[in-house]
Amino acid sequence: MDLSKVNKILIVRLSSLGDILLSTPLIRSLKKKYPHVQVDFLLRKEYSDLLINNPYISSLLLFDRSDKVKNIHLKKELKKNNYDLIIDLQNNLRSALFLTGFKGIKVKFNKKSFAKFLLVKFKINILKNASSISQRYASSIEGFQLDDEGLDLFTTKSVSQQLSSKNKHIGFAPGSKNFTKMWPLKKNIKFER
């Protein structure tokens, strides 16, 4: 795909926190390589704080699971934008239904669902050598390569912190909405003072 001829891109990643954060290298790389492109991002409203100050996004569009009427109006408005490229990073039934009727080229993230199923249900890991999620997001666009600047987290318009691949970071999130993603209590280390 020749992105130099693309003017408007819609990226769809409705949830969740980590997955949206992992989309930031794609957003930045697209905008830096093609500064003329309008990059809009559709996500659920409860995650908007992650991207609200991202300078690479032209419009942040909010999906509201609890307000079907609002989403119908949102879909009508987005269809009028005539996006040249729609990147569905969610790639599930909800995003597919929402994007029905949109014109333009649509590409989808390969979730490797069967491999994930084997890992979660049977602890068979065939994803050991898989690329990172951010790289796999970028591979949704044939031939597109990310820069090597890591993840972005813009906390305010004037203050930003970049999680660069050049530095080492440790993140620890013991809780999750899904039980299978929670850190098991038996894995905790007792710290003594």
Description:
The chain has helices at residues 17-21, 24-33, 68-80, 93-98, 113-122, 133-138, and strands spanning 8-12, 38-44, 59-63, 85-88, 105-108, 151-153, 161-163. It starts with 7 loop residues before the first strand and ends in a 30-residue tail after the last strand. The protein is 26% helix and 16% strand. It has 193 residues and is an alpha/beta fold. The radius of gyration is 18 Å and the shape is globular. The model has no long low-confidence stretch (mean pLDDT 89). The strands form two sheets. It has a five-stranded parallel β-sheet with strand order 3-2-1-4-5, with helices on both faces. It has a two-stranded antiparallel ribbon with strand order 6-7. The longest helix is centred in the middle third of the chain and has 13 residues, at 68-80. It has six helices and seven strands; from the N terminus they run βααββαβαβααββ. The protein has one domain: Rossmann fold, CATH 3.40.50.2000.
